[in-house]
Amino acid sequence: MSTLLYITAHPSSPSESYSLTVGEAFISAYQEAHPEDRVVRLDLYKTDIPQIDQDVIESWAKLQSGQSFDELQPNHQKKLEALAHLLDQFCQADKYVFVNPMWNFSHPPVMKAYIDAICMRGKTFQYTEHGPIGLLNNKKAIHIQACGGIYTTGPQQDKEIGSRHLQTVLNFIGVTSFDKILVEGMSYTPHLAEEIKTAAVDQAKEKAKVF
């Protein structure tokens, strides 16, 4: 049995979101094809994701210097516990589905905060004399992203940062099996929006069967 972590970063509902609509289609098809697997849902907009702020950095430094966790301030403990939970949950999963809209060529802020939370030296990557190595091997990910413009081809292609950034980070921590479904062009060609969504849903269903 595998565990799939379904990570969404959209403040709206599936009925109002192209990316979530496609994501739900993927999950439904995945569960039908892999009934023995466990699906864990993680809505980043409903999750406490502490930023890597001064409290966190100072607390990590104190722990490394030998201070006990119980000696930290209660609000600092809470932040570290939340970050540790997110990191453990991510490491324990076998497969990842990331779902988000493109905002300003990249992710919503909660996705970046989550990415920061799961990149931890000694847990998901390690520095060696031969350079950094990822520690999460034999896992796979797929990214579902929706945007109104067209960024996979044409003059705007180099402006797509979100999916490329996510793939770079995941490859860095060892998740080298990376696929994507980019739902795009709905604002550029609004008369084709439903057709674009239907094609993406069909693609998601097919990819879910073999994910």
Descriptive overview:
A hairpin with a 2-residue loop joins strand 4 and strand 5 (131-134). The mean pLDDT is 96. The protein is globular, with a radius of gyration of 18 Å. Helix 1 (18-33) runs parallel beside helix 6 (193-209) and helix 2 (54-64) packs across helix 3 (74-92). The chain has helices spanning 18-33, 54-64, 74-92, 109-118, 162-172, 193-209, and strands spanning 3-8, 38-43, 95-101, 125-128, 131-134, 140-147, 177-184. It is an alpha/beta fold and 211 residues long. 40% of the residues lie in helices and 20% in strands. The strands form 2 sheets. Strands 2-1-3-6-7 form a 5-stranded parallel sheet, with helices on both faces.
CATH class identity: Alpha Beta
Cα gyration radius (Å): 18 Å
User: If helices are DSSP runs of H or I spanning 4 or more residues, what is the number of helices?
Assistant: 6
How many domains, as an integer? 1
> Taking strands numbered 1, 2, ... along the chain, how are they ordered across the largest sheet?
2-1-3-6-7
CATH superfamily grouping? Flavodoxin domain
Helix content: 25-40%
- In CATH terms, what is the architecture? 3-Layer(aba) Sandwich
What is the CA–CA distance across the termini?
A: 13 Å
Q: pLDDT under 50 segments (min length 5)?
A: none
The averaged pLDDT comes out at 96
* Strand and helix order: EHEHHEHEEEHEH
Number of strands: 7
* CATH fold-level assignment: Rossmann fold
Dominant shape: globular
Give the amount of beta strand, in percent.
Answer: 15-25%
> How is the main sheet built?
5 strands, parallel
- What would you call the structural class? alpha/beta
Subunit structure: Homodimer.
Protein name: FMN dependent NADH:quinone oxidoreductase
EC number: 1.6.5.-, 1.7.1.17
Keywords: Flavoprotein, FMN, NAD, Oxidoreductase
